[in-house]
Amino acid sequence: MNLVESPLDPCDALSRVTVPAGEPWLGELRRGQTLRIVDLEGNQAADTLFYNLDNPRGERYSAVDTIREQGNAYLSTGSCLRSTAGRPMLTITADTCGRHDTLGGACAAESNQVRYALDKKPMHNCRDNFLIALAESDYGLGKRDIGPNINFFMNVPLTPEGGLSFQDGLSGPGKYVEMRAEMDVLVLLSNCPQLNNPCSDYNPTPLEMIVWK
């Protein structure tokens, strides 16, 4: 963990948007701009993907390159989020939560059935959020463009056997993660609607997206 508070004042922000519980958010971030994701009520999960805004189908966030280059499966202050071309996309500049997941993936109708029960298939999930947000946009992206995502605020420890364990979140009300764009990026976020594991405390709550010039 590398806990660092930000000097930025939300009163000086370019934009502030509240993302309701269980809903997606799609937005552009220009090189040099800073994005803060705020866990307003605590223990919420923010499933997030990033794309090169100039070439969204050809270059996007890469969990493999990010983990390999930093030698760590978790993200915190100082982490560089890298693209499928190995280039820096964003740098985490402040973090009051301390650890963010790169391996747990996004919940989906299929995974809900496998992990929990067959009758969980119709439940709202992050993969559907991603697809709905892209279908309603003009970026020309779809199902084939959904790759491994980051789960900000989510606590998924690696077990000694190499498995994953979904645990209570480390976040709390008002905790945030902040990142500076190193290129023009498209941000696709799902405010996780998951009700079957503790990543959202079985009770999804709102997030806030704050952007500075």
Radius of gyration, in Å, reads: 16 Å
- Strand order across the biggest sheet? 1-12-3-10-7-6
Percent helix among the residues? 10-25%
- List SSEs in N-to-C order: EEEEHEEEEHHEEEE
**Computed structural class:** alpha+beta
What does it look like?
By secondary structure, this protein is of the alpha+beta class. Helix content is 12%, strand content 29%. The protein has helices spanning 63-70, 109-115, 126-135, and strands at residues 15-19, 24-29, 34-39, 46-52, 74-75, 80-82, 88-95, 100-101, 150-152, 175-181, 185-191, 207-212. The strands form three sheets. It has a six-stranded antiparallel β-sheet. A four-stranded antiparallel β-sheet has the order 2-11-4-9, covered by helices on one side. Strand 6 (80-82) and strand 7 (88-95) form a beta hairpin. The longest helix is centred in the middle third of the chain and has 10 residues, at 126-135. The protein is globular. It starts with 14 loop residues before the first strand and ends with a strand. 40% of the residues are buried. The model has no long low-confidence stretch (mean pLDDT 90).
Give a nutshell description of this structure.
The protein has 213 residues and is an alpha+beta fold.
Structural key phrases:
213 residues; single chain; 12 strands
Give the topology.
Blueprint: E1 15-19, E2 24-29, E3 34-39, E4 46-52, H1 63-70, E5 74-75, E6 80-82, E7 88-95, E8 100-101, H2 109-115, H3 126-135, E9 150-152, E10 175-181, E11 185-191, E12 207-212
Antiparallel strand pairs: 1-12, 2-11, 3-10, 3-12, 4-9, 4-11, 5-8, 6-7, 7-10
